[in-house]
Amino acid sequence: MKNKLFLGLVAIMFVTVFSSCDKMPQVEIDAANAALTEAQAIGAEMYVPQDYLLVKDSLNAILAKIEVANSKFFKKFGECKEQLVGVTAMAADLKGKTEAKKEEVKKELEVALEEVKVVMEENNTLFAKAPKGKEGKEALEQIKAELGVIETTIADATNMLASGDYLPALDKVKAAKEKAASINEELKAAIAKTKRR
Q: What is the pTM of this model?
């Protein structure tokens, strides 16, 4: 009788111990990782870096908590599960922010490309009118080479626009636009100088 009672108490203790241990929240971990990977795949790291790092750091902190909880005898993951659901939602929101930022950068790139093309058309017209004297010949050769580089940059940026590499293309176009504007001023100054003579 005592043995049965003792075995009954032991059985109750085992049930209590194992029922108080949570299962590792693998489904939630996988969902959070997948959502973050999807956001990264569409460029979150490049277009919204601070938001991306916030979500990534949050996920890493929760995973560290899970490791600590997993090393304990009584495993409790309830709070971590809730946090993982929150991180999954943040990662989904991150995808939306990334798409919006990409669209914004794309529009900015399209405008910048049109602006630099207008300046380049003017530069080509001014180049034809530029003084061709001995002293200006070397400067004109250099300007011609720089105009060629800008044209190549515009072509590269146009290809990048078509392939969806908006941010690097925008950086290239901004630099090309500055150089084109600088050449424009230089050509106008040279033409004005010869008109004064």
A: 0.73
**CA separation for the pair 166, 172 (Å, rounded):** 10
Please name the fold of domain 102-196: Substrate Binding Domain Of Dnak; Chain:A; Domain 2 (1.20.1270)
Q: pLDDT tens digit string along 30-85?
A: 999 999 999 999 999 999 999 999 999 999 999 998 888 877 777 787 888 899 99
Distance between CA atoms of residues 127 and 183, nearest Å: 10
Cβ(92)–Cβ(37) below 8 Å: no
Domain limits, the chain: 21-100, 102-196
| Amino acid of residue 10 | V
